[in-house]
């Protein structure tokens, strides 16, 4: 009975990515029909492997073409090409008809090449008992996206569209859940390598602090490493930003000079877009600090759509979300030690602590997976029918151990960075890559909206991040 429950639970629609599931279904057919040797001779087994490999590759080549056709169709729709649209009897691209929930593709994806690379490493086509899995398809999509940017880098800016911005989630992407970025973290050299290649780097996180010191504590290993690095120019170092609270607070790395053990004012370092200066006399920078994060005024980077949001609507949305969380806490009979926390631009329910008399210490009080998902889905659906919420944008997500409702979303955070880094020639979605671990359908994961603003890599751990960056930055 528990086995059946587990299967049914994982089939719930809010936990599935329909595009990946669709590809997985396509690959299941040749696996079922052909991934069986008729006898145990090695030569026949090798022939079976080769046959199944070619069929997997052929299917992914067809999907690759469907993506290419969808990009072309969407571009013609955007340009209102009436001649083309009138000739189309479908009214949609074929991929939209096959996968109705499919989103936008900003780049072509060489899926056949990506599969052959993954197969050479993981021997997917040599498996006889386990069909290509969700994770297999996820890795193939990631590898295809990496291959695309490697190709664009070789083409150069005159012909291609090289990578200009890489953004990262924080927890479970750069470091373990609730952790910090220490200098020994293997991801740091790759972030430095991106900066050295003049690629802008932004950390777009749900952690919502309005003070730079909180981010400096979480990322102290990275900023210490940057400060001590002699290969990067100051301009390259200052291409590191933190977008906190999804899209609510922007901070940028700064650095000042030290001479004769005293901090001296230096020539202003031009802002990324030429509009803001960073120097030791800035009121947001402690005169005794040599490096860290500087808060950037919201008027400088905020999108026009965000500037028209009513403060009353924002606070009413957070009030209603907080009220809903209290109702759910009572309905689900959650422990009293589990607190509900209200911030300026967010409200959430988080794990608590309880004093254990036998152990004579505080022990964690956690929420179960079922409780977390009940809370986030109820919160999402309730706010969608609340009028003030419809006039702004918000994000409800399950962080793995907590549930939050944030004002804004990661798509807006990434859009803001694209504009902030270059106001004259904003970075395009096809020149942007977001790396995160929460890309499940909306209502349970906050990286999902990042797909609206750029290309993405779906990872499952900090080690995954290291692996994909190693391939992305390889010379």
Question: What does it look like?
Answer:
The chain is an alpha/beta fold and 475 residues long. It is built from 18 helices and 15 strands. The chain has 2 domains: 140 residues, no CATH class; 266 residues, HAD superfamily/HAD-like (Rossmann fold, 3-Layer(aba) Sandwich). It is 44% helix and 14% strand. The strands form 4 sheets. It has a 7-stranded mixed sheet, sandwiched between helices. The chain has a 4-stranded antiparallel sheet with strand order 8-9-13-12, with helices on one face.
Major sheet size, sense and barrel closure? 7 strands, mixed
Major sheet strand order: 7-4-3-2-1-14-15
| CATH topology category name of the largest domain | Rossmann fold
Average the pLDDT over all residues and give the rounded result: 86
* Number of E-state strands: 15
Low-confidence stretches: 1-11, 259-286
- Number of continuous helical runs: 18
CATH homology-level superfamily of the largest domain: HAD superfamily/HAD-like
Q: Label the structural class.
A: alpha/beta
